[in-house]
Write a structure and sequence with these properties.
Distance between the termini: 47 Å
Oligomer: single chain
Helix content: 55-70%
Shape: elongated
Strand content: under 5%
Largest sheet: none
Order of helices and strands: HHH
Number of strands: 0
Length: about 70
């Protein structure tokens, strides 16, 4: 796993370490989890935005079902 270097205010670093200890994890694990959660939430938000756009477009198949061949006809 690659390493990164961060510049962080000393007070924030101490608060982060204290919070991580309270959560019974290392500061490294805490930062990794926060980043994973943020990235995952962003992906979910983007997916929800796509569904909202599809709903607004009000496009439907009107119950019609297509075959694979029909979809790929040229």
């Amino acid at each position: 796993m690659p390493n990164i270097t961060l510049s962080i205010d000393e007070k924030l670093l101490e608060k982060g370490r204290e919070y991580a200890r309270h959560q019974q994890m290392s500061l490294n694990a805490l930062i990794r989890k926060l980043l994973e959660d943020k990235v995952q939430k962003n992906s979910i938000d983007q997916l929800e935005a796509c569904f909202e756009l599809m709903d607004k477009a009000n496009a439907t198949s009107a119950g019609e079902k297509w075959t694979r061949e029909a979809l790929h006809e040229r």
